Every structure is written in structure tokens, then in C-alpha cells.
């Protein structure tokens, strides 16, 4: 039995038709009791960008994605141990971190933040990836 569960597999050929790519990826991997979530942006799982030009709105959608992926993996936001946040402009730090902070109130993860020159698509203003755990014996609340 594999200890790795790959969640929401996809191929970049369909995801990024404007680029010549052919990579098999997934949105999250559960490896034992650890969950690794791929960098999430302001795009929903149907491929619709939320918040064009608005870093806070993109962060809100990214965190919705993170929450959903963690739940699909058997964890939740309260079990995040590390976040890495990427922004393309230092002025976006405050609006993005306010949104992330709202979603992770009381969680106290370790955090790395980077200002970078760009992300995979020009309309993306921020990205966040997380690592979470599934504590031994933990069960998600009934009803999600």
C-alpha cells in the first residue's frame, strides 16, 4: 500500500494552454501524516481567476483552495505547520498577509515570505503553499 495520496491530479497541457508544457502534477500530496499543498493562487479549481489586480481577493481565493485541499487530504487549517507566501510587489504584503492572518488566526505556523519578480502567469499577484500534519488519531469534524 502506498503511503502517498495524490489529490486533484492534473496535466499542465490543459491547465496552461498558453504555454508549451506537459507535466503531470497534483494540488496536494498526503505522505503519511504530512500534507504538502501546491502553491495556491487566486484561481478557483475551475480555472477562473478571482480578483484581477486585487492581491487581497486573490489571497482570499488561495486560502479557500488551501482549506479545501487540506480537508480533501484529511487535515484542516488548524494543522498547518508552515506557510510560504510569494508576492510580486512589496506593497502587496499588508493586504495579502491580512487575509492569510484572518484564515490562520490562532494557528501559529512558521512562515516564510518572499517578494519575487513574477509568478507563472502575469495576472497572478500572490501565491501561498503550505505544509500541514494529520495528528495521530485526529478525525475531521462531522459535516466537514
Automatic annotation (TrEMBL):
GO terms for molecular function: deaminase activity. One of its GO terms (cellular component) is cytosol. It holds the Pfam family Ribonuc_L-PSP. InterPro entries: RutC-like_sf, YjgF/YER057c/UK114. Gene3D superfamilies: RutC-like. It comes from the Bacteria. SUPFAM superfamilies: YjgF-like (SSF55298). Belongs to the RutC family. PANTHER family: 2-IMINOBUTANOATE/2-IMINOPROPANOATE DEAMINASE RIDA, PROTEIN HMF1-RELATED. This is Enamine deaminase RidA. It comes from Superficieibacter electus.
Amino acid at each position: 500500500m502506498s503511503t502517498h495520496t495524490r489529490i486533484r491530479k492534473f496535466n499542465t497541457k490543459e491547465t496552461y494552454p498558453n504555454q508549451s508544457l506537459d507535466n503531470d502534477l497534483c494540488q496536494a500530496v498526503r505522505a503519511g501524516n504530512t500534507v504538502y499543498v501546491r502553491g495556491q493562487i487566486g484561481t478557483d479549481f475551475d480555472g477562473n481567476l478571482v480578483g484581477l489586480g486585487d492581491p487581497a481577493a486573490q489571497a482570499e481565493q488561495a486560502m479557500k483552495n488551501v482549506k479545501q485541499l487540506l480537508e480533501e487530504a484529511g487535515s484542516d487549517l488548524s494543522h498547518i505547520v508552515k506557510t510560504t507566501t510569494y508576492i510580486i510587489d512589496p506593497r502587496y504584503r499588508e493586504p495579502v498577509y491580512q487575509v492569510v492572518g484572518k484564515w490562520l488566526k490562532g494557528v501559529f505556523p512558521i512562515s516564510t515570505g518572499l517578494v519575487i519578480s513574477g509568478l507563472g502567469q502575469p495576472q497572478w499577484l500572490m501565491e501561498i503553499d503550505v505544509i500541514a500534519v494529520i495528528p495521530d488519531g485526529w478525525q475531521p469534524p462531522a459535516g466537514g
